[in-house]
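REQUEST ID: PR-0412
SUBMITTED BY: lab tech R.K.
PRIORITY: routine
TASK: structure prediction, single protein chain
INPUT:
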Amino acid sequence: MTVPTDLGTPRAATPDLLRSVFRQHAAGVAVITAPGPRPAGFTATSLTSVAADPPLLSFGISTGSSCWPAVSEAGHIGVHILGEHQQELATTFARSGADRFAPPTSWRPGPHGVPLLDGVLAWLVCKVVARVPAGDHRIVLGQVVEGDPEGYTGTAGRSRPLLYHEGRFNALRD
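STATUS: complete
OUTPUT:
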């Protein structure tokens, strides 16, 4: 195997450099929801499994996000893994100023009042255990309290995740 040796021209560290590099990194797509007088939710590609025992996960959220006030106050949050059939849902929850929980979004109140989205591949409800400052974001640590790993399976009986790559939502290819 030949290993490429041209690393290109280094660029100074900027927000644009970070965004440009991470456009090359395919990520799973999730929607994070928080309860409140008006439920809140946003599309996240920063979801990470942190530990198995106790079961912990993390995600990042901008402190400038319209959802930050709800997430900053929430005792519990919902984590929804989206399937390839949910590009429109991902776009809705990524859109600024959208009424994300209005039709056609289908959802119901779940454990601890957390809004749960219908038709997702899997979901978790997590107790928020920390909000760690990280620049203009917070890294939220959640401890899983319950969930369902066997959500929507589609017409072929298989679950296929929605991915985010090069600034677009994508599906896996066979």
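NOTES: The mean pLDDT is 90.
REVIEWED BY: pending
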